[in-house]
Amino acid sequence: MDNPLVTAFEGPFGIAPFAKIEDAHFAPAFEAALAAARARVAEIAADPGEPTFANVIEALELSEALLEQVGGVFWNLAGADTNPARQQLERALAPKLAAYSTEVTMNERLWSRISALWAARESLGLGPEQMRVLTLYHRRFRRAGAALEGADRQRMAEVMERLSVLSTRFSQNVLADERDWTMALQPEDLAGLPDFVVASAKAAAEERGRVGHLLTLSRSLIVPFLQFSPRRDLRESAYRAWVARGENGGETDNRAVAAEILSLREERARLLGYASFAAYKLEPEMAGKPEAVRDLLMRVWTPAKEKAEADQAVLTAMMQADGINGPLEPWDWRYYSEKRRKAEYDLDEAELKPYLGLEAMIRAAFDCAYRLFGLDFRPLDLPLYHPDARAWEVTRGGEHVAVFIGDFFARASKRSGAWMSDFRGQKKLGGAVRPIIVNVCNFAKPAAGEAALLSYDDARTLFHEFGHALHGMLSDVTYPTVAGTSVARDFVELPSQLYEHWLEVPEVLEAHARHAATGAPIPKALLDRLMAAQTYDQGFATVEYIASALVDLAFHEGAAPADPMVRQAEVLGALGMPHAIRMRHATPHFAHVFSGDGYSAGYYSYMWSEVMDADAFDAFREAGDAFDPAVAARLQRFVLSAGGSQDPASLYRAFRGRMPGVEPLLRGRGLLVA
Ligand SMILES: [Zn+2]
Fold it and tell me: To the nearest whole number, what is the mean pLDDT of the chain?
């Protein structure tokens, strides 16, 4: 078969020949690409010559070229424009790719060549980026267990297998508890609920073949119910059921599952030579050590708790004015907070929306990139994978920088959420390649002939993903392993969250937010109310989040707790939680931490990134100009172009002259009382 996926892409800018690619091409292309990668890795491992940086590391960097070309097309289509054939192939590929990856990291000859280079690293004459790449390879193999032998290797395989069973069970138990609880709402119970909540409760009943209205524990239904229902008794029952997920006794109880997961993680870390699972997890992150995480969280905790306690007093007074005595309870917070928000910060989304046209917000994002980094955007007329996707050539001073693809509208074939990804990454090794970057969003598609309008959250998402896109497009490194967004998890959200700040620079919306029908600029009063609403109830949000992050950290430091619920109670007791606030996710349903490894000893990273983006934007504030050229040049050089070519803390220090401070975040969240 003549397969367009396995020959070089020769069209303009190296964009894939989408018109020629059929679904039937993917499976054989992956087979060919995997076979080519395996053959190449075998050659590299069996090389009879002395190991050198070139014949081991550089060779490995280029060994998966075809797999990257095929995967670059397939994984983008699987997310943005899937169909049953693509879904089936996705399922079939997952175990094959996992097996290949284990084969590589467990290849003993390859490991011995990498360790030999590592041992001799000081005498190899490597440049800083090469040293970083060697460090990353050595670390990746070691962390995967390449150095384990005999019984330890065997035990590690057992631990990993058991962990995968337990994490699946943990998720399924939470789902079962969520599914099993419902509360029928009588017509009089619907009082005070907005139309969208009533409609969701009706849909929930219909879905279960019932008539009337049902409350379920789905976050999108229970949270608005707690916010709007004046029925304190119903709020209490619903809240108690919501926080008891995974803690109801019987088969779906997650407390013993969590305890076993924590103990196996500790064993895994010790087998690999780490003092604790937290030490293992944090090693490749910017935070580096558990102490750094705790220190940062505690610096935010104290002012957040003070703000939450002040808010608790206000809300308690509101409740007492309703004739209810006693303390404000957790099932009261959202209800009184919503009443207060309406009184003090009411913002009518419908009034705002006509000013936030999609085209205007794209222009705003491009315009900021021009003012900061001198980037120009020229629409390209190229056939892409879907008619809604659009492409631009990105240039600077007439020189090609990247191709940017924007795929903005929701459709049934697209995964939910928003993301940045690439069809092709940047590199210089083996010939210079400029990147092809894509942003995918799920904005509502307007009727034919009408303009697409965004909510403020949508506009923020657009800027967020465009920040990731800049990280990919401005990448300027030699080795693919460290290109673009290939950085530590607690560093990767810096460019994206930072870019959101330019949407809040008044002159940006003043210039670009024009009324869709009249062309009038956004009224100043509306803009002010919009900005004030951004910091509302951040005491509550910060306290519930930090409590969860500190419990997560405590679970993974030192010896695993015999009873996680006791450890959780100790941590919360020491913090002195405000009475009406609980953890955002309690242990028996803390999926970030127990349904897989992703955010275990890592739940902190959301706030870590936010501290950094606030501190980074503050550099522009200090310079007195949101587009200060010197600060923008440093941002580009040390963050947006540098990828993972140095460790993240060094990059941040090079940009900012110091490590991030928490004060800009506290100011941004309205937690610094002047
Ligand atoms: Zn992001």
Answer: 95
- Which amino acid type is present at position 448? A
Tally helices (H) and strands (E) across the chain. Answer: 27, 7
Q: Given CA atoms 434, 440, 443, 448 in this order, what sign does their dihedral have?
A: positive
Q: Which of 314, 355, 317, 313 has its CA nearest to residue 529? A: 355
Strand duo 436-443 + 399-409: pairing = parallel
Nearest-angstrom CA–CA distance, 259 and 238 = 27
User: Strand 399-409 vs strand 390-396: parallel, antiparallel, or unpaired?
Assistant: antiparallel
56 close to 133: Cβ distance less than 8 angstroms: no
Calpha distance 258→451 (Å, rounded): 49
pLDDT digits (tens, 9 = 90+) for 362-388: 999 999 999 999 999 999 999 999 999
Q: Tell me which range, 1-5, 512-516, 534-538, is most confidently predicted by mean pLDDT.
A: 512-516
Ligand 1 centroid to residue 641 C-alpha, Å: 17
Rounded to the nearest angstrom, the distance between the alpha carbon of 606 and the centre of ligand 1 is: 10
Tokens linked to 375:
């980037």
Query: At residue 376, what are phi and psi to the nearest 5 degrees?
Result: -110, 145
Rounded to 10 degrees, the C-alpha dihedral 425/426/428/432 comes to 90
Q: How far, in Å, from the CA of 461 to the mean position of ligand 1?
A: 9
Catalytic residue among 61, 129, 266, 465: 465
Residue 94 exposed, middle or buried by CB count within 10 Å (0-12, 13-18, 19+): exposed
Distance, in Å, from the CA atom of 611 to the CA atom of 494, rounded to the nearest integer, reads 9
Q: What is the DSSP string of 106-159?
A: T-HHHHHHHHHHHHTGGGTT--HHHHHHHHHHHHHHHHTTTT--HHHHHHHHHH
- How far is the C-alpha of 100 from the C-alpha of 619, rounded, in Å? 44
Q: Which residues share a beta bridge with 421?
A: 438
Alpha carbon separation from 288 to 281, 357, 528, 608 (Å, rounded) = 9, 42, 39, 12
Give me ligand 1 centre to Cα 34, in Å.
Answer: 30
> DSSP characters for 549-570?
HHHHHHHTSSSPPSSHHHHHHH
Query: Mind listing the pLDDT tens digit for each residue in 543-594?
Result: 999 999 999 999 999 899 999 999 999 999 999 999 999 999 999 999 999 9
* Size (the chain), residues: 674
**pLDDT tens by residue, 62-101:** 999 999 999 999 999 999 999 999 999 999 998 999 999 9
DSSP 422: E
Please say if 465 is a catalytic residue.
Answer: yes
HSE of 219, CA atoms in CB hemisphere, 13 A: 5
**Distance from C-alpha of 371 to C-alpha of 365, rounded to nearest angstrom:** 10
The predicted-structure confidence for 184-196, as pLDDT tens digits, reads as follows 999 999 999 999 8
Q: Taking each helix axis from N to C terminus, what angle separates 494-503 and 456-473, rounded to the nearest 10 degrees?
A: 130
Residue 473: how many other CB atoms lie within 10 Å:
26
Ligand 1 center to 469 CA (angstroms): 10
Has residue 1 got a pLDDT over 70? no
Among the listed residues 516, 510, 528, 487, the one whose alpha carbon sits nearest the alpha carbon of residue 650: 487
Report d(CA 164, CA 157) in Å as an integer: 11
Spatial CA neighbour of 564 closest among 284, 346, 253, 354? 253
Contact status, residue 260 vs residue 166, Cβ threshold 8 Å: yes
Is there a contact between 337 and 540 (Cβ–Cβ < 8 Å)? Answer: yes
The span from the CA of 53 to the CA of 613, in Å, is 36
